[in-house]
Write a structure and sequence with these properties.
single chain, Rossmann fold, 4-stranded parallel β-sheet, two-stranded antiparallel sheet, globular
Length: 161
């Protein structure tokens, strides 16, 4: 058997990308953004295909991502943030709602909203994932965006109904 297989290519093409970046924990999020921008450049995105939007913290990411996804101006929205566990359970409420918001927008709009939000126990773990020994999760979110946008472009259009 040789079924038809659809694989996404890692090329920006003419796609437009929004990067929504939390300022809170900027030491980490600025590195995530650098990784995301570098990855877009390396995969053929021109400067005019990329818009960066900054928000106060990770909790604000879903609302802004939703507005961008619904604007019709972007093929994918990558959200970059860092929620670091403190001495309270505050991080649990943020992480859960942020993830839920991204998924809801993706499903309702058909525009991929990528989860590039670190959910770490320590600043050291976050820095490791923002260009340190564990890679750069901002770059990984962009790679996922490139692939999903390409896959969606190869699929049949969704029926209205």
């Amino acid at each position: 058997m040789n079924p038809r297989t659809i694989d996404g290519r890692l090329a920006a093409g003419n796609s437009r990308f929004a990067l929504v970046v939390a300022r809170f924990n900027e030491l980490v999020t600025s590195r995530l953004l650098e990784g995301a921008l570098d990855t877009l450049r390396r995969h053929g995105a021109a400067e005019e295909q990329v818009t960066v939007v900054r928000v106060p913290g990770s909790f604000e990411l879903p609302l802004v991502a939703d507005r961008l996804a619904r604007s019709g101006q972007f093929d994918a929205v990558c959200c970059l943030g860092a929620v670091i566990q403190g001495q309270t359970t505050h991080h649990e409420y943020i992480n859960q709602q942020v993830a839920r918001g991204f998924m809801q927008t993706s499903l309702e709009t058909g525009v991929p909203v990528l989860f590039g939000v670190l959910t770490c126990q320590t600043m050291e773990q976050a820095l490791d994932r923002a260009g340190g020994k564990a890679g750069n999760k901002g770059a990984e979110a962009v790679l996922a965006a490139l692939e999903v946008v390409d896959v969606l472009g190869q699929l049949p259009e969704a029926e209205q109904g």
